[in-house]
Amino acid sequence: MLSKSSVALDEKSAPSTRLAAAPAQRAIKQIERVPVSLLSGRKLPLAALTVEFLLISVIVFEASALYHFAKFGGFAYPRFYALAALALAAVFVGSSAFARDYSLKRLLSRREQLRSIFWHWSISCSLLVFCLFMVQATDFYSRGTILVQYAAGLAAVLSSRFLVIAFVTRGLQSGQLSGNNVIVIGEAPLIHQTIRKLRGDGRGTRITGIFSLEAPPLLSTLEPLLRNPARVAEETAQVLHDVDTLARRVTIDDIVICLPWSENERIHAFVEGLAAIPVATHLAPDHNWNWTRHPVLARVGTMHTIRLARAPLTLKDRALKRVFDIATASAMLVLAAPFLLLIAALIKLDSAGPVLFRQRRHGFNQSEFRVFKFRTMTTLDDGRVVKQATRNDSRITRVGRYLRGLNLDELPQLLNVLLGQMSLVGPRPHALTHNDHYEEQIRLYARRHNVKPGITGWAQVNGLRGETRTVRDMQRRVEHDFHYIDNWSLFFDVKILLLTVLSPKTYRNAY
Which terminus of the chain has fewer CB atoms gathered within 10 Å of its CB, N or C? Predict the structure, then answer.
């Protein structure tokens, strides 16, 4: 029996706010009586893989047959096409399984799933084409068949995968699908904090056992925490014995140790004592690490470190974003060239002054550059005082009012994109004097410059544009910029570009 330690069971049988003392053997019997979920997270990958393999094989083969009957009036070599469909399905599900796409963690990330599906399906189809060429089957295996198979198979994969995602999401919420079984060991305050996070992660994590250790006595606010070494060793040995007993009777996936990181010897004792159990052992963040958002084990050279914050975009992300920017900006400039010349002529006819307005702004890593805009005002402020445009501002020209209302004054910034100074999507760059002002008012304001500024951004498509009358107005805009930086993806950029054109919010406060 446990003397001072305590054991609690699954969240349905023991609330996190109370760690009731109970013998380990009694705990095991109660755990065995917990209703079993219809499908566990360990069985789900195999089930999803099998269903997807069968579905792809059938859809690809049937698509080939329908194409041949429609195109040629018959279907020759059906056995060869059946083998090709099976091979294509096997390569795809095999590569997806190797990438752990069927795991609960990956299935709950739609963005990762989309990226992985397109990548693995394209590679699998390319490999099929290469094999057809090598066995000289391209004489009867037409290009039309390959295109039909690619489209039909991709549609089948997307449909089946997102049905699985919907099933997993609903199953975890209803309890019909269980995630990992976890044992939590440690001091009560850290245990409560850890359990709250595990139960709120939406991944169906089941707290199978809770072992609360005796808290150290606090003699005074000035004296250190003291423990009886013999008592600590005895309690550690007892808890290790009870955890081992529990893990031999019930399937456990993870064990989480909830102790202050300063207790090196005790943590080491638990890690060594738990080494005989074939599960993953984790150390939960203590109170000193609550402020970190995404601590990750990483390396600097050969030294292992805990990465507290990552660069906003990886090298691959930056390259992908840059290729997208160049291709899209070039196409837009070519297509819009006559329209841009017309706007330039209207500006010259409407008021005296240059067609383009240039102003100093801060770019990536606060490097200075000059942004291009169509001139919409009678003034060209670029000094220590830059007055923001207000509603019904007398400085705005007649043509300029229409250009600003439709966001057309920003189009010359496509040149800044091609020069590498800006991106199509990102935090909007502000005048230098405004940056200096708000850096003193808003915490981490300069973090906006961790990525290239954009012609449009997440704040703008949510209606946060125009004059910032209060610091709170700018604070809301900055919060949206941080959300963009922390959640960047190519799909997010495409979404923002579409919203820039289609969403009514984008034109709100445009003056």
Answer: N
Contacts of residues 99-102 at CB distance under 8 Å and 24 or more positions apart, as own/partner, are: 102/44, 102/45, 102/46, 102/48, 102/49, 102/164
By percentage, how much of the chain surpasses pLDDT 90?
30
Residue 190 and residue 295 share a domain: yes
| Band of pLDDT at residue 10, cut at 50, 70 and 90 | very low
Q: In whole angstroms, how large is the CA radius of gyration of the chain?
A: 30
- Per-residue burial over 190-213, b = 16 or more CB atoms within 10 Å of its CB, e = otherwise: bbbbbbeebeeeebbbbbbbbbbb
DSSP 396: B
pLDDT of residue 481: 93
* Tally of CA atoms within 13 A in the half-sphere of 43 that contains its CB: 7
Tokens of 461: 């498509």
Structurally, how many domains does the chain consist of? Answer: 3
Rounded Cα–Cα distance for residues 113 and 161 (Å)? 8
Pair 424, 467 in one domain:
yes
Query: How far apart are the C-alpha atoms of 104 and 203, rounded to whole Å?
Result: 7
The pair of three-digit structure tokens given for residue 325, joined into one six-digit string: 């920017």
3-state SS of 194-217? HHHHHHCCCCCCEEEEEEECCCCC
Two structure tokens written together for 323: 């290729």
Residue 481, SS3 per DSSP:
helix
- Mark whether 253 and 319 lie in a shared domain: no
**Is 153 a residue whose pLDDT tops 50?**
yes
CA 435 – CA 477 distance, rounded (Å): 13
Alpha-carbon distance values, 326 to 321, 322, 343, 416, 423 (Å): 9, 6, 23, 11, 9
- Which is more confidently placed, 486 or 288? 486
Q: Are strands 6-8 and 206-212 parallel, antiparallel or unpaired?
A: antiparallel
| One domain for residues 346 and 397 | yes
In the chain, how long is the greatest CA-to-CA distance?
92
pLDDT tens-place string over residues 362-382: 999 889 999 999 998 877 766
Selection from 271, 300, 293 nearest residue 283 by Cα: 271
How far apart CA 311 and CA 334 sit, in angstroms, is 34
Structure tokens that stand for 336 in this block = 């819009």
pLDDT confidence tier of residue 291, bands split at 50, 70 and 90? low
Residue 114 has pLDDT above 80, yes or no: yes
Tokens of 499: 């919203």
Q: The domain containing residue 195 runs over which residues? A: 6-22+179-215+228-307
Position 302 in a domain: yes
Count CA atoms within 13 Å of residue 451 on its CB side.
Answer: 30
Residue 31 lies in a domain: no
